Amino acid sequence: MGYPLKNARDEDYIFNRIRDLLKQQRIAGLHLDEVQDAGRHTTDAAKDHFTKRFRNLTQDKEWPVCLFLSATLEARDLINHDNTLARRLKPIEIRPISPETDGEKLRESVGSLLRQSGVVDQTGLIDNEEFMQILMHAAAYRFGLAIEITIEAIGEAFFGRARTLELDHFAGAYFTRTNNDDDLNPFMTPHWRGIDTTKVMDRVNSEKTEAQKKGRRKK
Fold first, then answer.
1. Which residue spans within the chain are E strands per DSSP?
2. Is the pLDDT of residue 1 over 50?
3. Burial, 181: exposed, middle or buried (Cβ in 10 Å; 0-12, 13-18, 19+)?
4. Angle at which helices 11-24 and 44-59 pack, to 10 degrees?
5. Nearest 5°: phi and psi at 31?
6. Do 111 and 58 belong together in one domain?
7. Do 48 and 109 sit in the same domain of this protein?
8. pLDDT score of 217 more than 60
9. Do 73 and 107 fall within a single domain?
10. Stated pTM of the model
11. How many domains, the chain?
């Protein structure tokens, strides 16, 4: 019937299957997130192998694919490891958000989430300048993470059957994500500026990655 026969579902099989599906579905672009994880705790030979795989996707004669790679700055070493791949990519650095340049946009986004969820901001959190600064700081000045924390705070409100969004909901969301006690929770302490939330979020991501690796090994 024309189907390839191969019992082993090894890396070669999976990669070729991905390439065939991209062509069959006429997908011209592929987005890979958290690329920095592929370069951690690995050898130069493994980096060569990884980058060559994705470089070949861009050079495929029948169906070349555009790559969109998103990662922390840690991924630079992995990308620069392959000169050909590096030349084919145009780096765009997303800088940390700030109240001056992104405060209004974040406020609008949080307001939109509240309207869609049906939860009401009766206490005026969104219009409070210090709260928006705290939210940015808690998210390590990453816009997407600020949105995630907001969604999780709305979830805390739903879980407690509340229809009004409170500061405690954000504190609960941050605790659930980081397991930090009150003294290290930006939504709970007046000394929130002294908390290194970048280290906190890096630790959370590292723990999540390690847990995923352990889960794969158990299987």
1. 29-32, 66-69
2. no
3. exposed
4. 20
5. -100, 125
6. no
7. no
8. no
9. no
10. 0.72
11. 2
